[in-house]
Design a protein that fits this description.
Helix content: under 10%
Order of helices and strands: HHEEEEEEEEEEEEEEEEEEEEEEEEEEEE
Shape: globular
Number of strands: 28
Strand content: over 45%
Strand order of the largest sheet: 1-2-3-4
Length: about 300
């Protein structure tokens, strides 16, 4: 007598979760940033929590207390996590062909939808679309999170792309282009230049990047004036905009550094850093022991958030 009731309740719960997802308004939300994704998307962030993939799953860390919770039934491939509206988007590693590839799952584990059987590296969720390449050097696509519609935006080797609210900047390895979010209005901005770690400053409509042709120094390109400027010499691996006129860099020796674009003033330097991610006005970085620290512009001293090594 109880069995039919259990089946009905289970079906009702699934249907409710499915309905909630399709009724969600994702229209103006970012699941992560392109800057973070270029470094592997090693974490995602909401107002209260950090989400970090590691060897045994994904850990949810409360920002105020550092309290960790391992999320159940999430078997993600390395990195590139996006979290928005209570849902996590990730590349799933699963023996079930209907549950692997690019998926979206509710954080409570009650809803899972396969968006694509293929995994995408990297990818960024913006609104109701995922912007992604099928490995670096592949084509650039946008994929609808609700109906899986796939649209090719750039049919060429896209090495890196930077997404902003009104468009996309991308490099094919030798040239820098801009396109609209729908792939229209393609323009070549720079030619014959190898660049990486593209980041966009909306404040002055400027792109910052590492110029591989110039010993991995940092350059800027003003889109309004078409001016290309040598910002800083050095063997850098990543660069991101931080605060109003500042940038954060990581060089090949693992030195994390923040300095002002206006006058070159250095705010902080931290050695032995393996990676960093920025969310709003907070910078998070990993040291070689998998410990996560945070830094804010108001306090340039590192604050320990959590150690992933303790999870193993």
């Amino acid at each position: 007598m109880c069995l039919p009731l259990i089946i009905i309740l289970s079906f009702s719960l699934f249907g409710c979760q499915k309905s909630e997802f399709y009724n969600q308004d994702f229209s103006v939300n970012f699941g992560n940033t392109t800057d973070n994704i270029l470094q592997g998307g090693l974490m995602a962030s909401t107002d209260e929590y950090l989400y970090i993939p590691f060897e045994n799953g994904i850990v949810e860390i409360e920002k105020k207390t550092g309290k960790p919770i391992i999320l159940q039934d999430i078997t993600s491939e390395f990195g590139y996590v996006n979290v928005v509206n209570g849902y996590i988007f990730y590349n799933a590693f699963n023996n079930n062909e209907n549950k692997r590839g690019l998926v979206v799952q509710s954080l409570d584990g009650k809803f899972l939808k396969q968006i694509s059987k293929m995994s995408y590296f990297p990818f960024v969720v913006f609104g109701e679309w995922i912007y992604a390449t099928n490995l670096r050097g592949g084509d650039l696509y946008k994929i609808n999170i609700k109906n899986s519609e796939q649209i090719m935006l750039a049919e060429e080797p896209v090495e890196e792309f930077a997404l902003h609210e009104n468009g996309i900047f991308y490099s094919d390895g030798n040239n820098l282009y801009s396109i609209n979010l729908d792939g229209e209005n393609k323009q070549k901005l720079l030619s014959g230049i190898k660049l990486k770690s593209i980041t966009y400053s909306n404040k002055d409509n400027t792109l910052l990047f590492i110029n591989s042709d110039e010993e991995n120094g940092i350059y800027s390109y003003n889109i309004n004036t078409n001016k290309l400027t040598d910002v800083r010499e050095g063997d850098y691996t990543f660069v991101q905009v931080f605060e109003n006129d500042g940038i954060v860099t990581l060089n090949s020796s693992g030195l994390l550094q923040s300095f002002s674009l206006a006058d070159g003033h250095i705010d902080f330097q931290i050695p032995e850093v393996t990676n960093f991610q920025i969310f709003n006005d907070t910078l998070y970085y990993f040291d070689q022991f998998k410990t996560v620290y945070s830094i804010t512009p108001q306090n340039n001293k590192p604050n320990k958030v959590y150690s992933l090594r303790e999870m193993n």
